[in-house]
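FORM 7B: Structural annotation worksheet

SECTION A. Query
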Amino acid sequence: MPERPSPVPLVRRTTHALVADDRPIRLPHTDFDGAEVRFLGEPVDPALFPSSAAQLWHACDGTRPYRSWPLQERELIAGWHAAGLVVAAPRPRSQPSRALILLSPHPDDAQLALGATLARFGGRVVDVFSQETWTRRPHYQSRPALASRLLLAEEQVACGVLGAELTVLGHTDAADRAAWRDGYFLEPQAVEAARATEPELFERVTADLAAEVAGGGPVLVPLAVGGHVDHVLTRQAALELIARKTLEPERVAFYEDMPYSLFADATAEAGRLAVGHGQAAPVPVLIPASESAVRTKQEALWPYRLQVLEAVSKRIVRHGRRLGAPGWAERLWVLPESADVFAELAATAAEEAAAAG
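SECTION B. Predicted structure
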């Protein structure tokens, strides 16, 4: 009889401890296999997760503050948080959001780029190519249906941490589309190939996004730094809506795709765009963030266990510190028509960051 593998120690390298008003949210990668608990396909030490704790773990759904549990249960939850089995959503914001609409090519793109802005203002994330199976983890590579389900579940947890709404459009990721079997990154001069190669898909995406951006509110669009075809298609669909006068340019700003902006030139990508009435290229605006918002972004990125490396998340946080020095910031690229809207957003964020010290 084969020997069962020994439990793998779970250590989440975080300096953040749960506070009284945090709302613990369980991660979806935990499986109960009879008397054994597994996380990401690996057995969990019973000392960390006794079999009697299953009901408590299921109760960690983001609705209850940490302080509401008895001491013994809080100790268990704190251990799960330190090990990465749960994440912490902050107390729900007291003020309504700015009704931001973030067009996210895939689950995780909006959060990687603008997690701190979402943490401060809330909003709605619209996942375009949300049907995906790609993962770095061998356990899930051989289980594509499970991987697909978990990738969406990760997104739901992240939005729960950020207090953001989620809309899932359900288009298939480029990695699973025959047109891009040999590679799905485009050179800057080849962006029109995204639309020309899949014209029917482009029209479906454009129609879907027209419905999602109706009704007003700022719309944040990927800049498509790095040339991933799904990011290009999402951006070009938004530009098509501007050209058709379905989306007003004064509502639009572009965000820097992460992690691609860590090693590609966002300034050059912005310079290639000509948008709106004056066909002007967008200019950068920093959206500052408080340390509390940065912490919430870090919590929201942790659930992405199937695709996002912890080292990448840390690099993104360091990048925000470089952008906002001596504080922290995320960067948007805005049009002349939308400059006032996003200058106000930046000013509000800066006031909060300064007040938080």
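SECTION C. Observations
The chain has a mean pLDDT of 92. The first strand starts at residue 23 and ends at 26.

SECTION D. Sign-off
Analyst initials: ____
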